[in-house]
Amino acid sequence: MLIAGNWKMYKGRRATHEFVEAFEPPPGVDVVLCPPYVSLREAAAGGVRVYAQNVHWAAEGAFTGEVSAPMLAELGVAGAIVGHSERRQYFGETDETVARRAVAALEAGLGVIACVGESEEEREAGQTELVLRIQVEALADSVGAHERLVVAYEPVWAIGTGKTATPETAHEAHALVKSMLEVPVLYGGSVKPENAEELLAQEGVDGALVGGASLDVDSFTAICATAARIRS
Ligand code: PEP
User: Fold this and answer.
1) Which has fewest Cβ within 10 Å: 20, 50, 138, 175?
2) Measured in angstroms, how far is the CA atom of residue 171 from the centroid of ligand 1?
């Protein structure tokens, strides 16, 4: 079971230092923290496994504002998230660029958490399965079931909204992803200590990608502890 904390654009070096000083991951669960680029080194120095929130497909070049996989590896970063819905929504990320980023990260020896998920309009229009199929196919075609690839199913309408997928909805989506790509699948979307157990207990849910609740050391620790309990 993997619990990953996506800090988004929160926590600079000082706040990161305070978090990792206070954080004691419970035994029996894999934990990853995904701080902003500027805090990666601070987090890694605290002994936690650390992923970036994005990674470019080129090793180097004229790509202002981007960071490459070899640069992350050199820093002691273990992997990267790709295709988070906020990247797709606000920064023009497409299935093609997400796949290119994933390939480059894996080639550099990093782990990858690739995010997929339908928007509220897509769900209401009955397009959830189609959207997931297209997104997962892009990964299946370019990467396949790589041993360092994990998919995160994050319904966009559940991210940062307080709404969560029902355990049945998560189960259905995870089964679809796994039928196309045999890799672990995390659930993401308003996971909190109060709902972690029912979501993580679902068959086919191999962990969680946690946003808001990962910013508080106590709530993140509680989610990690729940995952450890379920697995044991
Ligand atoms: C996320 O950012 O990946 C996420 C799932 O956010 P939240 O837990 O806040 O919904």
Assistant:
1) 175
2) 18
